[in-house]
Amino acid sequence: MFNLALLAKQGWRLLQNPDTLLHRVLKAKYFPDCSFLDAQIPSHSSFTWRSLAQARHIIRLGTRWRIGNGSQVNIWKDNWISSSSPLKIIFSAPNSSRKCKEAEQIKSIPLHPSRHDSMVWSGTPNGQFSTRSAYQLQAAEKSSLSASTSDQSRNHSFWKSLWGVAVPNKIKVFMWRACKSSLPTKANLFSRGVLSSCTCPVCHDENETIFHTLWDCQYARTVWQNSLLHKLHYSIQVSNWNDVVEEVLRTQRQQDIETFFTLAWMIWGNRNNAWLQKPSADAEILGEKAATYVEEYNEVTKKVEDSRSVLCRKWSPPTGSMLKMNVATTYFNTRKSVGLGVVIRNSRGEQMASYCEEFPSAKDSLHSAANAMIKALQFGVDAGFYCLMVEFSHSQLKALIQSTEECLSEIGDQIAHIRNFREH
Ligand SMILES: [Zn+2]
């Protein structure tokens, strides 16, 4: 890095002293029709030229035009705004705060119609090149680059937990791309030279980065603040999308993580609609839509898993005159209720009785399952079946019922109630 800063010094001298012999020789050979900064590096170049050309990146980074009569400056491409960072015009929306600031900065630049434009070094207050400031400029660039790559290369557990979230694959892929900075935001397309502007297509005010679109845009803010995750939006104080995701994965409950993923995906969908000039979804109800989506998805996949486990563990009939009662439960989180299904069959697999009911859920799945079991057993007794085998899948409840020890926790009364049925 230090070598490069020294080479930049040579390059800077070349740029400032076009009358030197070295400049004239190099110009004749390598850039007869353009400036040192725009010259090509042909494959047969000398070592000196290659080395100097290598350092141009630093010079470009730190050089700006001092405006004289303005005739040499390309106002759209060159660095020429002295007090801003970067030193050039950023394409932003009319009336945005960035644009107003730029206008102020431009208005403060004095014009000198009798003087040529000249190149000055922006790294020092006096506009003179210094090796030290070139070195600092490089170091700053390197650390900002490595910061963004380390963002992208999060540790293994981050990606593992991201892929482990129970949402449809398309949403996981979306989130993965968002965290890899590979979504086609305007800032991304702008940096690849595909677009000439990077203004957010939704608010037309800020540059459209992933963090802006999904978290910081006025539309996204309204969405988050009207969702179940509103506290999260207030509490997370970071300025990088991956940090937001990491914080969510680390601190939130499973269902909130699923809603977070889904809602971010919906915000992106809305952004794509805005891009296609389609009407945008109501920001105030998007949170509710995401919660319903997650719940429906969970219900469907849970059913699929349940039916899979039933298929794996093939139902086996009871022997002789015994009857078997199968008890199944399902949970509806938004309705805060439990669905209970009961089937009683004989040894030939014929259905003798069945029953279903939806009732309010208890404080956790164990309490709800115990309540469901009591209802199921009561149904069996009421229907006149006394000699029943009972089959169900809640392993924790099963262990508590089968244990010979007394249950001392809050669920003890229900367990005792269930055990009592055996006495009948
Ligand atoms: Zn925006």
Automatic annotation (TrEMBL):
GO terms for molecular function: nucleic acid binding; RNA-DNA hybrid ribonuclease activity. It comes from the Eukaryota. InterPro entries: RNase_H-like_EbsB-rel, RNaseH_domain, RVT-Znf. Residues 129-224 form the Reverse transcriptase zinc-binding domain. It holds the Pfam family RVT_3. Residues 328-420 form the RNase H type-1 domain. This is Reverse transcriptase zinc-binding domain-containing protein.
